[in-house]
Amino acid sequence: MANTEKCVHLEEFLKCEVDIIQRHLARHKWFNEIPGEAEGIADFITKYGWLMRELYCGYACPDRAICDLEDKVTIH
Predict the structure, then answer these.
(1) What is the largest CA-CA distance in the chain?
(2) Buried b (16+ CB within 10 A) or exposed e, 7-17
(3) How far apart are CA 47 and CA 73, in angstroms?
(4) Which of 18, 32, 50, 63 reaches 20 to 30 Å from 10, CA-CA?
(5) To the nearest whole percent, how much of the chain has pLDDT over 90?
(6) How far is CA 57 from CA 20, 21, 34, 60, 70, in A?
(7) Residue 34 CB neighbour total at 10 angstroms
(8) Domain segments of the chain: what residues?
(9) CA distance linking residue 62 with residue 69, whole number of Å
């Protein structure tokens, strides 16, 4: 595997993450009784950020076969 020091697909990953948050934030806030937008986003990322990264890095990233960054970074 390549020795990766930083993600070269970070912008793509963040676009995916923002899209997912936008699609699910209203329901997440309602289910968790969170009134504010910023608080809802922070809670969503705290609870599901690790999963979004794992799914992107492990299944969607075009360099997933040669990147070892996923093994170096722990979010949860």
Answers:
(1) 44
(2) bebeeebeebb
(3) 16
(4) 32
(5) 58
(6) 15, 17, 29, 6, 7
(7) 17
(8) 10-72
(9) 13
Q: Please name which of 70, 25, 71 lies closest in space to residue 48, comparing C-alpha atoms.
A: 25
pTM for this model (two decimals): 0.78
pLDDT tens-place string over residues 42-67: 999 999 999 998 899 889 999 988 88
pLDDT for the residue 48: 95
- Residue 33's SS3 state is coil
Q: Rounded to an integer, what distance in angstroms lies between the CA atom of residue 50 and that of residue 53?
A: 5
Can you tell me the distance from the alpha carbon of 44 to that of 29, in angstroms, rounded to the nearest whole number?
9
Contact 38, 73 (CB under 8 A): no
Residue that has been written with the tokens 């595997």 in this structure:
1
Q: Which residue has the tokens 């979004």?
A: 52
